[in-house]
Design brief:
Elements (H helix, E strand, L loop, with lengths): L7 E2 L2 E2 L14 H12 L2 H7 L6 H14 L9 E4 L10 E4 L26 H7 L2 H15 L5 H17 L2 H9 L3 E2 L2 E2 L5 H26 L17 H13 L16 H11 L7
Antiparallel strand pairs: 1-2, 3-4, 5-6
Helix pairs in contact: 3-5, 5-8, 6-8, 9-10
């Protein structure tokens, strides 16, 4: 159920156009796409998902999230939009509030460079379960790695903004306001040289990890770490949940760890290997 007079729906909010009294929006394309992503069967999903979503931006978004390790922008901190619903009702998307990226969490904590982004967004999850979309994603990644996602290109973009920040005086203003505060054990550096060096070092370490990840994806390996019970952590409880589903005869998409369309003991075996951080796909 949805109300086109309402600015909100299940945690989402209309941002454009602004609704005044008696104005309406159109929630139908969003609701229809959401229902399709959640309810469609595997074959139906692969054959018709491009009718509901603009696939190329979806792939680019997923890759960008992986490169930046944007853990706070999956399923939230994002915009869904339609270019022109008179021409097409496909949804496209864009990130917002990228304050937990490139080696830092929003609270200034350090983010590891070698973690694989465990995407909790269900649409991206379903795409990553598809051999067809994994190939498209891997090919697109290596295309971008020769362009805007080279280490030099990423560093150059950061360098420009670090320089703007210093030369404009914004760094000095930030330090005057916040520099005396200890946040997470870190004192703001008015020159930001330390942080700049940290980001460049993080990029140098991050990209080879992703090169290996997407190469394995291209070769057909199961490279997606499945969070079976949905608690955000890969642990023994995922194995327990999966075994319980097998005993009860349940077939959940999340239990199809190896992506073969079935939930069997083979999924349990692969989940154990993933838990042990092996790369064996046999």
């Amino acid at each position: 159920y949805y109300d086109n007079h309402s600015e909100t729906l299940e945690g989402f909010e209309v941002k454009y156009p602004d609704l005044n009294d008696n104005d309406t929006t159109d929630w139908h394309p969003f609701v229809a796409a959401n229902n399709f992503a959640v309810q469609s069967h595997r074959v139906e999903f692969e054959e018709h998902v491009a009718e509901f979503f603009d696939i190329e931006p979806m792939i680019d978004y997923s890759i960008f999230m992986s490169v930046a390790n944007a853990v706070d922008n999956s399923g939230k901190n994002m915009f869904w939009a339609i270019y022109d619903k008179r021409a097409s009702q496909k949804l496209t998307l864009a990130p917002w509030d990228l304050d937990a990226t490139f080696g830092r969490k929003f609270n200034n904590a350090v983010m590891p460079y070698d973690t694989i982004f465990n995407d909790r967004h269900y649409l991206a999850f379903r795409m990553l379960r598809s051999y067809y979309f994994k190939q498209k994603m891997a090919d697109r990644y290596f295309e971008l790695r020769n362009g805007c996602f080279t280490a030099d290109s990423l560093k150059a973009r950061f360098s420009r903004y670090f320089n703007y920040f210093r030369e404009s005086g914004a760094a000095a203003v930030e330090y005057a306001v916040w520099g005396q505060n200890h946040y997470n054990g870190v004192v703001l550096d008015t020159d930001f040289r330390t942080e700049e060096k940290y980001i460049y070092n993080w990029i140098d370490k991050r990209l080879p990890v992703l090169d290996t990840y997407y190469q394995k994806m291209r070769e057909g390996y199961v490279v997606y770490v499945v969070d079976v019970n949905g608690d955000g952590v890969l642990s023994m409880s995922d194995i327990t949940t999966l075994v319980g589903w097998l005993i009860d005869g349940q077939t959940h998409d999340l239990g199809d760890v190896n992506g073969d369309g079935n939930v069997t003991m083979a999924d349990v075996t692969l989940l154990i290997k993933l838990l042990l951080r092996t790369s064996d796909n046999s």
